[in-house]
């Protein structure tokens, strides 16, 4: 259907269908290159285009930094389908982490799909952003504890594990997978890493097991957060050392003092 659309100059796959690492739950990352003079009309027809492939059950959209547009949809089947609409004249400006799988082209574009070979600059940027995001929200245990919002405290303990700890490990061991959604990276960890994450999950479940009965295990919650922050700060420090990024010592010291003063935490980077 896309090949019959004269506005589409080329079409290719990225992600797991390009690298042949799919499983039964993989989504489809399809990219199309559209000439500038056809871009606006193709963009206006995007939902009609998707519905010609399969019925769109639900969708979302995002404008991407490199003048492209993403439509991510759940389509009948169901199947997850992500359509990246890119400008033909801007292909060289887009960093790609894996070799694309070209499906068709009206003009040669293969050499314009630039696969990043040195990702160190990107890794440092990712790592700096990860730490900025974490320390920005690092008051969460004290605020939720003080308000006795135990369910939200539990949710945040799990979220911190997958939004920050797993990525801190991933950026050390397999940084090319770092750009993938963080909630899908657990299965990419080395077995010993995954065992460490699962052990932390046991600590989380143990600390919160009484909240449904109104029984708050304060000693267990203190121990959990000492372990969790110790692990996270350790992995962030190791990642910073590996990639030559300055670790925010002042922010960690401020948070250590704050947790100790408010909740009695005694955190060590284990």
Structure description:
There is one protein chain. This protein has two domains: 8-112, Beta Polymerase, domain 2, CATH 3.30.460; 120-263. 24% of the residues are buried. Strands 3-4-5-2-1-6 form a six-stranded mixed beta sheet. Helix 7 (191-208) packs antiparallel against helix 8 (218-243). By secondary structure, the protein is α+β, with helices and mostly antiparallel strands. The protein is built from nine helices and six strands. The protein has helices at residues 16-19, 36-44, 46-53, 120-136, 140-146, 150-173, 191-208, 218-243, 249-263; strands at 8-14, 28-34, 56-64, 68-75, 79-87, 101-105. The chain is 47% helix and 17% strand. Strand 4 (68-75) and strand 5 (79-87) form a beta hairpin.
Number of strands: 6
Rg is 22 Å
| Domain tally | 2
Question: How do the helices and strands follow one another from N- to C-terminus?
Answer: EHEHHEEEEHHHHHH
Poorly predicted spans: none
Q: Supply the helix-strand structural class.
A: alpha+beta
What is the makeup of the main sheet?
6 strands, mixed
Average pLDDT, all residues: 93
End-to-end separation:
56 Å
- What portion of the residues fall into strands of 2 or more residues? 15-25%
């Amino acid at each position: 259907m896309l090949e019959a659309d004269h506005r589409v100059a080329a079409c290719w796959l990225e992600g797991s269908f390009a690298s042949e690492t799919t499983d039964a739950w993989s989504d489809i990352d399809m990219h199309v290159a559209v000439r500038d003079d056809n871009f606006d009309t193709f963009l206006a027809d995007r939902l009609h285009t998707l519905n010609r492939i399969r019925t769109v059950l639900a969708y979302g959209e995002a404008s991407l930094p490199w003048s492209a547009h993403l439509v991510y949809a759940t389509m009948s089947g169901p199947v997850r389908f992500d359509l990246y609409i890119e400008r033909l004249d801007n292909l060289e400006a887009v960093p790609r982490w894996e070799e694309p799988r070209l499906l068709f082209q009206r003009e040669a574009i293969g050499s314009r799909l630039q696969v990043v070979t040195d990702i160190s600059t990107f890794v440092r940027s990712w790592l700096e952003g990860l730490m900025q995001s974490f320390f920005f929200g690092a008051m969460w245990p004290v605020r939720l504890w003080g308000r006795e919002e135990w369910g939200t405290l539990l949710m945040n303990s799990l979220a911190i594990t997958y939004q920050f700890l797993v990525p801190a490990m991933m950026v050390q061991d397999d940084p090319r997978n770092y750009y993938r959604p963080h909630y899908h990276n657990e299965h990419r960890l080395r077995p010993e890493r995954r065992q460490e994450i699962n052990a932390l999950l046991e600590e989380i479940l143990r600390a919160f097991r009484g909240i449904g009965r109104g029984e708050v295990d304060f000693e267990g919650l203190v121990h959990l957060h000492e372990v969790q922050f110790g692990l996270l700060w350790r992995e962030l420090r190791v990642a910073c050392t590996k990639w030559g990024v300055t670790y925010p010592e002042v922010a960690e010291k401020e948070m250590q003092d704050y947790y100790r003063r408010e909740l009695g935490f005694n955190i060590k980077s284990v």
